[in-house]
Design a protein that fits this description.
The chain is mainly α. It has two helices and no strands.
């Protein structure tokens, strides 16, 4: 995998991790103010989808580099 591709995937991974922290903080703040959360059961699916997406990009990037 090229350095550029690795840098890009690292950036995306860090961005996705931030996207786990920031919404949780916002949800906690809103729930303390009396908000109701809808669709929370889908959240783990979305997290798994994004993790799989990053893993697939890394796998296909390594595959393209090695020619397999």
């Amino acid at each position: 995998m090229s350095a550029g591709a690795l840098l890009f995937l690292s950036f995306l991974g860090l961005q996705r991790l931030a996207a786990l922290v920031i919404p949780r903080r916002n949800t906690t703040r809103l729930m303390a103010r009396g908000a109701d959360e809808h669709g929370a059961g889908y959240y783990p699916l979305i997290v798994a989808l994004h993790a799989g997406w990053l893993a697939a990009m890394a796998a296909f990037g390594i595959d393209a580099l090695t020619g397999h």
